[in-house]
UniProtKB/TrEMBL annotation:
It is a multi-pass membrane protein. PROSITE patterns: MFS. One of its GO terms (molecular function) is transmembrane transporter activity. Keywords: Membrane, Transmembrane, Transmembrane helix. The keyword Transmembrane helix applies. One of its GO terms (cellular component) is plasma membrane. The lineage of its organism: Bacteria, Bacillati, Actinomycetota, Actinomycetes, Propionibacteriales. Residues 30-412 form the Major facilitator superfamily (MFS) profile domain. This is Putative major facilitator superfamily transporter. It is found in: Cell membrane. The chain crosses the membrane at residues 31-50, 62-85, 97-117, 123-142, 163-184, 190-215, 236-253, 273-294, 306-324, 361-380, 386-407.
Length: 419
C-alpha cells in the first residue's frame, strides 16, 4: 500500500484594500466630529437663554411664578418636538431633522429677544414654545445619529458627544456672563446667539451620512403597533424614568440655578451666572471622562455612583452656609448629573431598527421633568424659596439611581424579543 502524498496547494493571496479601510475610518471620524459641532451648537443655544434668565425676568417684570410658566412654555414645545421627532427621523433621516430643529430653535431665540425688547411676556412665551419645539426635535435626532456613530465605531462615545454639548453650554454661559457684566441688553445678546447657531448647523449637517435612522427601501417598515409598543416596554419606560430623574437635576440647574443663587445667597447676577458656569464645567468633565468609566465598570455601576455624587452635591447646595460651599455642592451636582442623559439615550438606542422610536419615547418620559418641573419648582419656590425647592430634585436623583439597572446593554436574544 503506497504512502499517501500530501501536496501543497498554493492559494492566491488577496490584497488587503487598505485604502478602503482608511476611507471608512476617515468617514467615521468626519461623522463623529460633525456630531461634536452639532451637540455644541445645541448647548450654546440653550445657554444663551438660561444665562440671561435674571435679565429676562427684569425686562418682563415677571414674578418667580410667571418665570415658571415661561419655562413651562419651552418644555411644552420640547415635548411636541420629542413626540414628532421619531416619525420624522424614520421618514426623512436624522440629518434633516437636526438641521430643521436647530434653525427653529434659533428662530425661537429671536422671538424671545423681541419679547424682552418690547417687555411683552406673551411674545416671549411664543418664542420659548418655538425654541422648545426646535430644541426637542433636534435633540432626539442628534442622539439617534450619535448612537449610530457609536455603534459604527464600536466603542462608547455618547458621553463625549454630550460633553461637547456641555462645552457649547459653557461657551454660551461665558458669553452670558460677559454680556451681563458689560450691561449688554438681553435682546441683542439673544439675537447674536440666534445668528451663530444656524451658521454652525447648516454646513455641518451636510457632513453626516444620508438616511441615518431612516427606514429604506427593502427594509421592513415599523408598523403603527410596533411604534406604539415601545411605550409599553418596561425597559424603555424605566430608562425614561432614569433620564427623568437625572434630567430633572440637569434641567433644574439650567432653569433655576442662576436665580436660586441670586435670591438664596444674595449674590450678583454675574456671580449667579458664574456659579451656573461651575455646574457646566464639572458636567463637561464628567462627560469627557465618562466613556472610559463606562467601558471599564459598565453602565449600571457608573450611573449609580453618579447619582450618589449628584445627591451629595444637591444636599450641600441646598443647605450650605455660604455661596462658597454652594459652589462646591454645585460642582458635585454637575459631576454627578453628567452621565444620566447620554447613557440613557445610548441605552434606548441599543436596538438599531427601533432606535428612533425608543429614543423618542425615553426622551419624552425624561422631558416630563422639564414640563412639570419648572412650574412645580416655581410653586415650591414661592413658598419655601428656590434653594429649598431643590429637595424635590434630590428625591428624583435617588429614584434615578434605583432604576439604573434598566440601562444594562441588550443581549442579541432580548433585542429579537423586543423587535
Amino acid at each position: 500500500m503506497s504512502a499517501l502524498r500530501h501536496e501543497r496547494i498554493d492559494l492566491p493571496v488577496l490584497p488587503l484594500d487598505t485604502s478602503a479601510l482608511s476611507s471608512h475610518a476617515r468617514h467615521l471620524r468626519t461623522w463623529r466630529n460633525a456630531m461634536f459641532a452639532l451637540f455644541a451648537a445645541g448647548g450654546f443655544a440653550l445657554a444663551a437663554w438660561v444665562s440671561r434668565t435674571p435679565a429676562v425676568r427684569d425686562s418682563l417684570d415677571a414674578s418667580t411664578a410667571a418665570m415658571g410658566w415661561l419655562i413651562f412654555a419651552m418644555a411644552g414645545g420640547a415635548v411636541i418636538g420629542l413626540l414628532s421627532a421619531g416619525p420624522a427621523i424614520t421618514r426623512l433621516g436624522a440629518g434633516p431633522v437636526i438641521r430643521t430643529g436647530l434653525i427653529t430653535a434659533a428662530a425661537g431665540l429671536s422671538v424671545i429677544a423681541v419679547g424682552t425688547m418690547l417687555g411683552t411676556a406673551p411674545i416671549a412665551f411664543a418664542g420659548l414654545v418655538l425654541f422648545g419645539l426646535g430644541f426637542g426635535s433636534g435633540e432626539v435626532a442628534m442622539n439617534v445619529a450619535g448612537a449610530a456613530n457609536e455603534r459604527a465605531l464600536g466603542r462608547t462615545v455618547m458621553p463625549t458627544f454630550h460633553a461637547m454639548y456641555s462645552l457649547g453650554t459653557l461657551a454660551g454661559a461665558a458669553l452670558g456672563v460677559l454680556a451681563a457684566h458689560l450691561g449688554l441688553p438681553v435682546g441683542l445678546h439673544l439675537i447674536l446667539a440666534a445668528l451663530i447657531v444656524p451658521i454652525v448647523a447648516i454646513p455641518t449637517v451636510r457632513l453626516l451620512p444620508i438616511g441615518i435612522g431612516r427606514v429604506g427601501q427593502g427594509q421592513p417598515k415599523l408598523t403603527t403597533a410596533e411604534r406604539l409598543a415601545v411605550w409599553a416596554d418596561p425597559r424603555t419606560l424605566l430608562i425614561g424614568l432614569m433620564v427623568l430623574g437625572m434630567g430633572f437635576a440637569e434641567g433644574a440647574a439650567e432653569d433655576w440655578l442662576p436665580l436660586a443663587t441670586v435670591d438664596g445667597y444674595g449674590v450678583s447676577e454675574t456671580i449667579g451666572a458664574a456659579l451656573f458656569g461651575i455646574f457646566v464645567v464639572t458636567m463637561t468633565v464628567g462627560r469627557l471622562t465618562g466613556a472610559a468609566l463606562i467601558d471599564r465598570f459598565g453602565r449600571v455601576a457608573t450611573l449609580r455612583t453618579s447619582a450618589s455624587v449628584a445627591a451629595v452635591g444637591l444636599l450641600v447646595t441646598i443647605f450650605g452656609p455660604s455661596a462658597v460651599t454652594a459652589a462646591v455642592g454645585i460642582a458635585l451636582w454637575g459631576l454627578g448629573t453628567s452621565l444620566g442623559l447620554p447613557v440613557g439615550m445610548s441605552a434606548a438606542a441599543d436596538d438599531p431598527r427601533t432606535a428612533a422610536s425608543r429614543v423618542s419615547a425615553a426622551a419624552t418620559v425624561g422631558y416630563a421633568a422639564f414640563l412639570i418641573g419648572p412650574p412645580a419648582l416655581a410653586f415650591l419656590g414661592e413658598h419655601i424659596g428656590l434653594l429649598h425647592a431643590f429637595v424635590a430634585v434630590l428625591a428624583m436623583v435617588v429614584v434615578a439611581g434605583i432604576v439604573a439597572p434598566a440601562a444594562r446593554p441588550l443581549t442579541v436574544s432580548s433585542t429579537r424579543v423586543r423587535s
